[in-house]
Every structure is written in structure tokens, then in C-alpha cells.
Amino acid sequence: MSRTYISRHPLDDLLPLEPGIRAVDHLDVPRSSAIVSVMAMDGEEASVTAGLAASGDVSIRFTGPGEWLAVSQSETPESLHRNLSLLLAETAYFVDQSDGRVVFRLSGPNVRRILAKGIATDLHPAIFEVGTSSNVLCGHISINLARTGENEFELIVMRSFAIALFDDLKVMGREFDLSAGFSVRG
Amino acid sequence: MASLIHCPHCGVRPKEEFSIRGDASLIRPDPEASDEAWNDYVHIRSNPRGRYREHWQHVAGCRRWLVVERDTFTHEVFAVTDAASSAREAGR
Amino acid sequence: MTAYRLASGGLIDRSAPLDFRFDGRNLTGFSGDTLASALLANDQLLVGRSFKYHRPRGIVTAGPSEPNALVTIGKGADSDPNTKATVAELYSGLDAHSQNRFPSLKYDFGAVNGLLSPFLGAGFYYKTFMWPAAFWEKVYEPIIRKAAGLGRAVLERDPQAYEKCWAHCDLLVIGSGPTGLMAALTAGRAGLRVILADEDFRLGGSLLGETARVNDASAQDFTETVLAELRSLPNVTMMPRTTVFGWYDDNVFGAVERVQKHVALPQAKLPVERLWRIAAKRALLATGAEERPLVFGGNDRPGVIMAGAMRTYANRFGVAAGKSVAIFTNGSAGYRTAADLAAHGVEIAAIIDSRAEGADVAPDGVRVIRSASVIDTKGRQRVCGAVVERSGFEQTIACDAIAMSGGWNPVIHLACQRGAKAIWSEDLKTFLAPDVGNGLVVAGAAAGRYTLAGCLKDGAEKAVVIAADLGFSTVSHTAPAVEGEIDPSFTALWYSPGAKAKAFVDFQNDVHVKDIGLALREGFGHVEHAKRYTTNGMATDQGKLSGINATGLLAAMQGISPADVGTTTFRPFYTPVAFGALAGTSRDEHAAPVRKSPLHGWAQRNGAVFVDSGLWFRPAYFSRGGEKTWRESTDREVRNIRENAGLCDVSTLGKIEVFGPDAAEFLNRLYCNPFLKLPVGKARYGLMLREDGMVYDDGTTSRLSHEHFVMTTTTALAGGVMSHMEYCAQVHWPDLKVRFCSSTDQWAQMAIAGPKARLVLQALVEDDISDAAFPFLAAGAVTLRGGLKARLFRISFSGELAYELAVPAGLGEAVADAVMEEGMAHGICAYGLEALNVLRIEKGHVTHAEFAGRVTPDDAGFGRMVSAQKPDFIGKRLSTRYGLTAADRMQMVGLKPVEPDQHIRAGAHLLREGAKPSTLNDQGYVSSACFSPTLGHDIALAFLKSGRERYGERVVVWDKLAGAEVVAEICNPVFVDPGNTKLNS
Question: Any long-range contacts for C943-946 (C-beta under 8 Å, 24+ apart)?
Fold first, then answer.
């Protein structure tokens, strides 16, 4: 007997199925993302850094020295894992985190004021530039924060904390009528 | 206690992102070392007023262990370095 | 009626009247009023009763130092006690109540304390209520509590929302008076990121009540011009209604913003208060100076008001504090108040000047009495006259208000909050802030520069230096020109001699001059001792008005300099901050994040009753129709697993992926048992020790490839073990080539246990999982039907034939549903933590209930696991010390009650039969206990002295809490299947 298994997103019961009214400040939640932990082998930090820089449309998020998250909205977890293995063969270790992490994309004119309610890091546009990423504490929860656009940030959180972070973000965004919904793209 | 710590890998961060383990000058003795050496290492701690080197982990950030050199009285932080680099330098 | 609203003037909007209530009276004020200015405009001078003597008290200041005008605003859960009327912004519908009076403000029973005042001097409590000690709690304290005290905290939960926020800037300017405004403007123009914070709802500080002209405009117009330019600068953030209350390490400032304290109906989407943590590269303290009260007889009578405050009420709020005002001053400031009041048409009854001479000019026709002092005041609930003494002659001057001016105290609190001591200036006769480095620079009146022109100049100049320090260049601007400058000179007067009534130093705590003298005479002359002995400065105002006067008095009484007395210690908070603001959103469900397992929804659908487990919610048991207690459900689950099969969510166990050529060596040093030779495709139980030789954590670790292991930890210590491994790898053995990361959240992991576990799983797994192909402790990748890649481990906590199946978390629920579906024919059930606990106790398996921090591997029966061959591992050296190998250590045993219907509870202690319960006779303790459905009676795991030699003996299980003593038989801790036949089937 063949079986198919339907994947669930942790916010399935919390976000509407259909996209609702979008406020200027919006929390966009991709239903699925391919995410891989990349850890450079000893002494290979520089070559892995260079290799990742050349990895095309894969977003690279800094998590610690010699450690990154590679994120893709277009690839499957398997293909991302495979492509990275080919690209960085014998220089890095990989752990699939596609199911272990949840991506939140926060955008809008008030995005910094919202994030300042949980994050101590200075997010001034001239200081936290587009492309910057780092692990930070948001309220009580450790996340990876990346600036992905002029007024757009991505928060990557451990799956088990996704609902708690979502609840926190709703409170942080309440002042600006923050809307939230699953990503239309995927 | 400092409010902000300059993590060598992540930049300036609030103290809430860190956890503190304690004296960074202790070096794990050789397994054959004397009872006294091991007793000192495991059980005996000084509580100095003034300059002190401590192991802090950037637990909500890069998760690296750091050596934070600070003054326990004035709370001034003099230096924050990666603990592995310090350990290598100490020839561990 | 004496205090009244002036016909014109002030920064109030007379077209916007606001209705409010005070003690049930309907009153009207205007937009722009504080509660205090509106009360004064309504001639409501009496606003409270004092703390100890219940004396009538009135408004004294126009700012945050107010000691008397403390009211409760709002009702019930929403009320704010001890709110200073002098800073409370008036709004329509504001409902305020006076405090510390019974039955009413006008007729207060507690005033009898005033008659007893000879007995209520300093140290009264210490002397009177010393004996007997037991009386404190039962007799003295309730009486004192009832008689004393200010506002009452409500017991209901606060319905309002609060939040916390971070801010960052190059320059934080604290205070928006002339100094702060010019600093913010200069820095803002230079391009610095500037935050300008002020506690007032209107920016401008002293300029709002100033009559001097700046740059050929009124001070108020000048303020508006500067504010307009600041508003136009995108790099400047202005924060009115924001009190910077604390200066912390690394130039982080705490501030509280009153977002919605000035509205009757707060918006739900906004907090009422917001706590800011401001990380500032530099800060400028431009908090101005506080006028010093004069200490004279009867100085606490309602109607005695600070001269500067009276001026502010007239100029800023258009309110006269009286129709005929007497002014008692030791400097020029009194004359300035006289001039402004006179300009508003208020009669000046007299200026009583303590100085013999001075160049100050009194308004036309006003009588000046020099070398004089006020020695008493007349009136009951408000002043009606001042008794003035000059050269031994007394005269009573009729008046309905007295303005007092005793000089200036720079507001330096923040600069002294990190341990630096204030420095006495003999020149200025006050305490100044010490040099606290370039992080916080004090400027303007806060630095003792009292003139308006001096403030404007100092603010701009210090901002230029700060900007240059931070690498910004500034354009030079000419300093604003001031017309009608202020003369701040005064002659210090700590105590006006000849008082004929109590001369108060601390209005809020009812401390008067004689109390200070008494403290000195009784040996409590040190400024910190005197504070505690007299309670001077210990009320909610923390001595803002009284502190320096107390120092001056202590110095004068001893004939020494105030420099030798010093000040008491400044600490945050500058003004009180609500607990709600400090908690922010961290309350209720936001107090700690909840972690949810990927199988949470599956468990919910199957009837799980959840229990907190650290941050996690884990199923305790799964209730089925008709089951009334957790025991019924748990017993059913246990029996079913021993007979059929069950599925339990174990996703919360920590999972750590370990890679590298030295991964095996690393694990070998981390665990006390060997891991070097663990074959690929195998799992092994591992025991981790602390360096002191005690067990730290346990779990199974599997080798997936030569250089890749996956470790599991207990749920409780998942984070701790990860940090421990990181410490070992980075600090102890930085040269080992090993990398690891947590994959806990990637996997949904389920234990499938029971004699029919294989039957259930084989229907789902494509690979051969027969005992031959996948024996006990096998581990590896498998493919589920449909092509899903999974990890399978043959490990067992229950002692049954069991597997742990891990699938990507998003698919967890679907796979768990599939397992349940395939298992239905085999009688599978979902089981929770309670059943898991019973199953493992029956099998003698340990958890952190056993590994409680004082247990060695040998104590728990794992002595032979500890490798003697390995040269080193964490805990090796100290695990061989004598105390850890002594023969009489407590060892883990099983216990069963001799009478099978008797119960054993965890935590009970063990005694020899007939022995009296005592520490000396203690034989051990019960670590885990449960009812065993398999055996039909209670069983327990316990630690007992030399326990393994004592199987068959009896002990008394002594449970003081439950009041039970049960005789139990000592036995092997493995109650079920000691031969492991089920496990290996």
C-alpha cells in the first residue's frame, strides 16, 4: 500500500487559508522553505564562505563562526542539500533544518519599531545593512534575523517556538495593525 | 554587571543573550594530576574584587564561549575574546 | 476663595475646558493643565494628609519632586496610587482621590497622631516596638500599617497593557529646557542620532514658565521655533512624557514613557506605559536645578509653596496660588517670583529676606523685610499669615500664600547612580555631579550654570564637543541673546532660627528639624544613619526636596562643612516606576514561551491531557471515554503496551548531530562509557558525568556514518548538554576536529513500544526490520511506504520490544496518524508521560528523578559501564575519590510494600525497622514510585545504603508529609522482564 503524508506548518490553525487584508506592516509566512545548516570543516571556513557566496539564489544567514543557514524558497530541501553538498564537497557538514525552522518575513514602514520591542540590536538602516544576518534574542526566543530589503527582515526560528514567536510578534505589531498571512508565493 | 557585551562575532549585544559560567583562568588538569590540583579545579573558586576573567557563552547568539575580562567592582569590560582562541593560545 | 485662575496668560487652551473630579467634587480645568494647576485654579489647596502626624498638606511644587500632592487616580484595578498631581496631565474625566485620610480630607481622625507627636519622634518605632518580638507581626505592625501609609496598592490584576522597547542613539539629551534644547539642536544639525527625552508632556522645561526674552522673542516662542526645527530633522526623536529614571552600565539608560496616562479611555492597541532601554553613545544630563525649600516653623501649612513653582503656576498655567502672597527668600529668586506675580496683579504682602542686604529690586510698593525670618505660620487648613521675626521683634503679616526660596540644588541623580559621589561646591553652596567620564556629561543648571544665557550656551557647547568626539562636524551658531536675565545668587540658610512650630525638612515622611538633632545626639549622625533613623528621604519622593537640607542641617549642627557630611546614596529609580512597566509584555502566556512538539496536534486529537515540562507541553495521558482519573488512563495505557503496543511522542528529547574526524574521540571523552568503537548503524546508551563524578545526563547516541553521530539528551537538559559540549569542544579540546548542531526541532520522534510494535511498524517501513535484520540497538535510515526517508532506532525505555521513529517534523502528525491506523488492528494506543514513567520504573530505568546530582554511575547500578581503560573523560578523575567509591554509599534498589495495598511515595525516607526518624538513622530515600498495573501493587526505586547487598531485607518507608509509614521489601530494581526477553524479541 502506498502512502502520502501531508506536511503541516505549525501555524496552520492560526493563519487563515486565504490571504486577508494586508496592512502596510505585514508578517508574511512562507509555507515551506528549504533550510540547511552548513558547518565548515576544520580549517575550511574561508573556502566555505567563498563557496556560499557563489551559491546563486540561496540566501546565506550567519549563525556563528564557520556556521550558516542556507535558505531557499525555490529549491526543495533535498535539492538544496544535494546542491550544497556538490558545491562544498569535503569542506562542510550539512544538516537539513527545513522542518526544524520556520521563516517569518516582516515588512513595512514600521518594521524597526516593531522589532525594537523584542530585539536589542541596533537596526538602523545604516548600521544593520541589507544582507546582514545574525542570531539575536527576540523577547525570550533566540532567532536568526536577516535584513532582506529596505524595510524587510526575515526571522528564522526553531519550529517548536514558532507559535510563541508568532504570538509575540502579533503583540509587538499591534500598535501598527500588523497583518499576517501565509505567503502567496509558497 | 555589564548591560552590553561586545561579542567578537556578533557585535554589541545585551547581557540577556549571554550565560555566565565563571572563572576562565581555570585549566582542566591532566587526568594524572594530583588530588589537590583536581580539587582546586572542580571545587575552589575565588571571588575577586576587581579585574576578573570569566567564561560567558553567547547562548542566544553565535553560541560561542567567550572570555570576558571585566572589573567586578566598576563593571567595566576590558576585553571579550573567543574562548577557543584563548584556549589554543594557552596551549591546551 | 483665594487661589484662582488668572484672567489671561499661560500655555493652557482656554477654549478646551476639561471636567474632572477630586474626592467626588466636579471641577473644571483646561487642556494644558496638570492636575495640580487645575486644583489650584479651583482653590483646592489641601490635597493630602501627612504620613505620620496626618497634618493637612498642600501642593508644594510644580514638578516631579512633589512630596505632598500624592493622589490616587482612577478606581479599582485601574487605579494608580501615589500619583503626583504636579505631573499628572489633566484629561477629561480624570477621577482623583486624596490619600491617607479617614473619613475625609478635611476631618481626619489620624490627626490625633499630631497631638501625640512628642512620642512620635525619630527612632520612635525602633524604641517603642522592640519587645516582645512576637508583638511585631500581630499587634504593632497592623496598627502602624493602618495609621500610616500613603496610597494603597490594589489587589486586582492590572488590566492595562505595558511593553518594553530598545532604542539606540549617538546622543541622549535628558531634559528639554534651555540646555537640552540647544544641545539637541546643535547635535541634530550636525547629523547625530539624537533622542530628546523629557518627563513633561510639553517640551521646553523652565522656558515654558520663563518671562525673560530670548532672541527678541518670548521664551515660549523661542521654544516653539527650536522645537519646529527639531521636528524637521529626521535624525532627532523627541520623547515627551518620558522619564529617564536610571543610568546603567555601558551607557544604557532606563526610561518610562507614559503613552496613555493622559487619556480617559486608553486604546487597546497601545500600551499605557512603555519601558525604554536606551543605548546611548553619549548622554547629556540637562535636568536643571531644583529649588531648595526653606526650613522654618510651620513651613508645611497648605499655601506654603516653592517660589519657582508659584511662578510656574502663574506664567505657564495662568494660576495664582493666592491673592496676597508673602515671599520668604534667601536670594534673588524670590524677587523674580514677586515681580512675575505682581505683573499678574497678585498682591505681594511682603518679601521677607534672610539676607542683610542685596541688589535685588522689589516690585513697586512692596515691603521688603531684611535680616528677617518666618518663625511660624497661621491658619489651619491653609495659611492665613506669616509670623516674621526681625531683631527679636515679631509681627504677623496677613497673607493667603507663602512663597519660599532657599537656593538651588542641581538635579544630578542620574550621574550619581553608578557609585560616583556628589561633590560639594563651596562656591555654589550645593552638591554638583562628579566627573563620570564622557559617557554622561552634565550641562546647564544641572551643572550649576543657572543663568538662562549660560544654559543655552552650555548646552550648545557641550553638544559641539560630543559631536566632535563622535566624528561629526558642527556649524557654529551664535548663542541666543537673553533679555531680562536671571540672577541665581543666594545665601545658604539651612534652618531659619527661632521656629515656634515644627520646621519640616521632609514633608512626605514628617521629619522635622528636631528629629535630625535627635538622630545626631543619639549617635546616628552619619548621613546614611540619620536617613534611616529619622526616615528623612525614605518616602516615595526619595528626599528630592529634603536630602540636601538634611545634609546642611547635619553639617550646621556639628559645625562642619556639608562636604564632610556628604549625601545619601543615589540609586535608580529617579521617580517610581510601575511594576507593570518593568514586566512589559512578559506576563500571562507571554511570561515564558511555550514550546510545542510537532506531534502536539496529533496528541490533542487523541485526547491528550497536557502537562508543563520545562517550556514544553507534553501529553501526560490520553483520556478515553469513561475514564475519570489519570490513573485509570495510565493503567490502561501501561497494560496495553505490555500486551499490544503504544505510541508516545518523544520529539522533545534533545537531538544533536555530531560530525568530524574526531567525533568519536569527542564523544568518548564526553561520556564515561566507551564510544570509539561504536559500529556504524548502532545505538549505544551513554552516561555523561559532571567533572565531580556525578551523573549529569544520559541518552542514546547512534553512529550514522563513520564521522556522523546523532546524540539524544533528556528533554530537561537538552540546552544544558549542548552548552556543555560546546564548552568542552571550545575550551577543553579546541584541537579536536568536531562540529555539532541541534536537530531537535527538525524531527518528530515517536516511540512505538510493545510486543506488537514490529508488526505495526513493518506495515509502514519498506526496509526489513526483523530481529535479525534490525536487532536491539540497531539504528539507521529507513524508507517509509510512499518513499519518505526516516530514521529508525531500536531502543527501549519501557523494556518492551520498541523503536523510535523520526520523521521530518512537518510530517510528524501524518506519520503518527499512519502508525495509529496501521496499529489499530494490533490494539495500539497513544500513551503519555505518566505511562512512560510507570513503564520505566517497572523496568528499573532511570531518569533525572534518580540522577539528582548526588548519584554516581555505580550508585545507579552502572558501575561496570564506566570505562577504566579510557585515559580521560569528563568526571573520570574525581569519580575515583574515596567518597564516591565507599561501600556504604546509597545504591539504587527496588522497593515493594509488604502489604500490597499500601502506597509508597517519592521523597519518602528509609529507616531500619524500629529506628527513630533522624538524620543519623536515615538509610536513604525513594526517588520514584508508582502503582504498577503489571504487578498490581506499588513499586518504587530508591537509594539505600549498601542497597545491593540487602535484597530481601525490610525497611520502613517513612513519609512525614503524608504521615505514612510503610514496611517495604528491598528487591532488584528491575521489576519486569529482568532477562530482557521482551526487549530482544
Answer: C943/C850, C943/C855, C943/C859, C943/C890, C943/C891, C943/C892, C943/C893, C944/C890, C944/C891, C944/C893, C944/C910, C944/C970, C945/C888, C945/C889, C945/C890, C945/C891, C946/C887, C946/C888, C946/C889, C946/C891
CB-nearest partner of A171 from C193, C590, C810: C590
Burial C296-326 (b: 16+ CB within 10 A, else e): bbbbbbbbbbbbbbbbbbbbbbbbbbbbbbb
Flag if A121 and B64 touch (Cβ within 8 Å).
no
The residue count for chain C: 985
Give me the residue from C249, C691, C731 closest to B2, CB to CB. Answer: C249
Q: Does B29 touch chain C (CB under 8 A)?
A: yes
Q: Which of residues 725-744 of C touch B (CB under 8 A)?
A: 726-727, 729-735
List CB contacts (< 8 A) between B74 and chain C.
Answer: 419
| C818 and C764 Cβ atoms separated by less than 8 Å | yes
ipTM for this prediction: 0.98
Residue ranges of E strands in C675-801: 683-689, 695-705, 708-713, 739-742, 747-753, 779-784, 788-793
The pTM of this model reads 0.95
CA angle A28, C279, B72 (to 5 degrees): 120
Query: Residues of A numbered 46-65 whose beta carbons fall under 8 angstroms of chain C's beta carbons: which are they?
Result: none
Mean pLDDT of chain A: 94
SS (H, E, C) C519-539: HHHCCCCCHHHHHHHHCCCCC
Spell out the residues 6+ positions from residue C653 whose beta carbon is closer than 8 angstroms to its own: C699, C712, C713, C714, C715, C718, C744, C749
The whole domain housing B10 covers 4-89
The answer to whether C808 faces chain A, any CB pair under 8 Å, is: yes
The rounded distance, in Å, linking the Cα atoms of C603 and C597 is: 9
pLDDT tens column, C745-793: 999 999 999 999 999 999 999 999 999 999 999 999 999 999 999 999 9
Rounded Cα distance between A117 and A135, Å, is 16
Average pLDDT on C714-736 reads 96
With beta carbons under 8 A apart, name residues in chain B contacting A122. 12
Contact criterion met (CB below 8 Å) for C733 and C796: no
Which residues numbered 75-134 in A keep a CB inside 8 Å of some CB on C? 77, 93, 95-101, 116-117, 119-120, 122, 124
Residues of A with Cβ-Cβ distance to C601 under 8 angstroms: 8, 13
Q: How far apart are CA C487 and CA C144, in angstroms?
A: 46
Distance CA C16, CA C1 (A): 23
In chain C, where are the structural domains located? 4-105+293-405, 162-289+411-483, 489-565, 600-652+746-839, 654-745, 887-971
Q: Mutation target for A interface from C172, C708, C739: give the one with most A CBs within 10 A.
A: C739
* CA-based nearest residue in chain B for residue C418: B74
A65 touches chain B (CB under 8 A): yes
Q: Identify the CATH homologous superfamily for domain C489-565.
A: BFD-like [2Fe-2S]-binding domain (1.10.10.1100)
Is C881 within 8 Å of B87 when comparing Cβ atoms? no
DSSP state of C297: B
Q: What is the pLDDT of residues C69-101, one digit of tens each?
A: 999 999 888 899 999 999 999 999 999 999 877
CATH of domain C654-745: 3.30.70.1400
Instruction: Report how far Cα C869 is from the mean position of its chain's Cα atoms.
Output: 51
Helix (H, G, I), strand (E, B) or coil at C650: coil
Which CATH number describes the domain made up of C600-652+746-839? 3.30.1360.120
Three-class DSSP category at C249: helix
Q: How far apart are CA C183 and CA C230, in angstroms?
A: 11
